[in-house]
Amino acid sequence: MLPLGSLVKVVATIGPLARVRLPGVAAGSTPRRALRPAGGLAWSRRAFSRVVRQVVGAPYLWGGKSTFGFDCSGLVQAVMGEFGIRLPRDSGDQAVCGLPVGSLEDLEPFDLVFFGPSGAVDHVAIHLGDLNILHASGHVRTESLDPRRPAYRADLRRRFRWGRRVVP
After folding, report:
1. Fewest beta carbons less than 10 Å away: which of 69, 134, 146, 150?
2. What is the pTM of this model?
3. CA distance 34 to 166
């Protein structure tokens, strides 16, 4: 079992399977469709949705940055890394990447969304569109900043600081 973003070397392909070299093990097999080029996926809503489905439900783990466990900034770093977008490890450092987005109304899908007490950042999420976010809070989940939605998080909406656009 390999977490999202693992680098492996393909040594052979046999029909729908790929033989891969693994750390500490001679080789293993995986479906070829599970493999992606190391340089990152081409950016698209469909590819992004596929990555989101792979991470939703993963446990929260402080300092975690794999599907075995994520914290908020590790999740953002890993998901965006799947598309070749390299971000710093911590939310405070991620909060200065890309272009500023000042209001909830100006957020676009794939923007990073930052939360915290007045003037500070202590949490980050990825905007999915329509004020829905992907973040690690207890576990990786999708929730909403829209008070009309069942998964509304009033606490996060109150703590919204700004967004950043990191996708070209």
Report:
1. 150
2. 0.88
3. 26
